[in-house]
């Protein structure tokens, strides 16, 4: 880049300046010849206007780019214009004065120069596009949705650039300070520095070197930009090879800013949600009548008459799904739009404690704060809100099968370490019900060790900060694999821990092989008693329970899952199809074209029964494994058990495969909704709701209740601080 005073744009401005100077000279000549003072002030005014054109003149000539200190030099002395006009008008007389005023105002407006902008000022604002990069490990190109926000400094010579990558559902944010110095021909991006190879209007070519793969390679980055487009192309190696490319279009939307929706947008989303539930949800009228549900819809629609934040709408949808009494119908955190998760649930608003809820009390289990609150302490208030009030509010956004699952819903509010380091209900909804002030929590508690009341404040933290602090204090975060454990304990008792049945997330544990090895060891060591601990297991793969039943059975038993599958609609739902997603190609076809007539028959009420075929998921009858367990089995259950785990416990109870200890489970003996799912994505708010497809019904009518243990064990809040396992202790007493 060089200084060029006579390029086409600078030349046009120079002609304007020259014209003004010539006319100013002629006016001064006439002033001294005729003595007319008004000519003097008019000449000065023209020179002032000409001075204001110096800025674009030297800007177009690249002077500012190569001498950025001139940015601060006041070529445009705007205040002088008013003085000149005032003195000139004092010398004019009559009607001519007003004509002159109009003329000068027009001249001044036309003479306002276009401010010369730096590169960062030109690209300031929000951008939306993609990052395409070469994945060396697979030698293929990968595309990510990417967003950019450019905030220039006051002088425009640097900018803070926030890059947001949507890495297949995981949001990654990178904020760096970028600087440009055309005079020194340098451009820096964070700690990385380039030399400017060329700098033209709309295009910058940068050269540098850096790590690429296992070597340090030359790098060329080409930036091209217009008013509404922006592109960064990075090439490496010799000859130049594609490394990555970011391509953007300008947008008015800041994707990280919290959203507020108009009543019209809210109404549209709610109407789609309502129509979808009524059209396809298999259990919509099991615990609500048509009349009561319609009344519920009217009540919630009445809340949508004013603009509402996305957090409030998310909460409203969750409160409505709560009243459908289905454990599989909810705004699923794993399926939410990644930007919705980022905006609502990735801030500095996380409580630095984990806890259980026992007897309606919040009992601390782990502490990531800098305050010495011991394990087993009871939190009485958070930010002045009583624990009981917090629990009551959060219960309105829980989920469960049927109306008799209070314990299951209470348990879902707890902050266990496994759930909290993924997605936990308390983390999501506490800030929505009780917004934080000054990013801190005011805690009132009873310390377990001292038994004294304490009050203190702790800063709210991010989930990542809490996880990191918990790791320092308590070791690495538990994985899905860590939830599978087998050991031989005292009194020759086998202990099998399975706290999740999410087999598709297991990395090293092959669950069938794991179970086979565990039961083989029980046989080899002639162990006569086995405890299977299912606490915390909310369900997942039904094959886990099926395999366990074969190890526990001592004779052939009935089918593991015996029942009927019902749906509520067989007609196509073309108007809803664009909002629904699913893993099943058959379901996609059915929602757009209707269910094939040969696959169902009409049943009672609004239901259609799905006819069994080779794809029916019912498990066959139970035939014991050759190395089945011949001894006594004790199963520890709790209120978290639902879905597939509930089905296993129900089978155990009916066929007397083990004695069940602990607390009443989740799930429902009347049947559950599941089998497969639609994912409803609302168009304006982007909120996602899981909607099950089938009603998995028992063959005979059952009560609205879960599994009640053979030996109920009531938890005691002090057990946490004393590290006492009351359920296992109860079994141990029986075995003594």
Sheet with most strands = 10 strands, antiparallel, barrel
From the helix content, strand content and strand pairing, which structural class follows? alpha+beta
Query: How much of the sequence is in beta strands?
Result: 25-35%
Our measurement of the CA-to-CA distance between the termini, rounded to an integer number of angstroms, reads 90 Å
| Global geometry | elongated
Mean pLDDT: 91
User: How many helical stretches?
Assistant: 23
Q: Count of DSSP E strands?
A: 32
What spatial order of strands do you see in the largest sheet?
A: 1-2-3-4-5-6-7-8-9-10
Our Rg estimate from Cα atoms comes to 36 Å
The residue ranges in which pLDDT falls below 50 over 5 or more consecutive positions are none
- In helices, the fraction of residues equals 25-40%
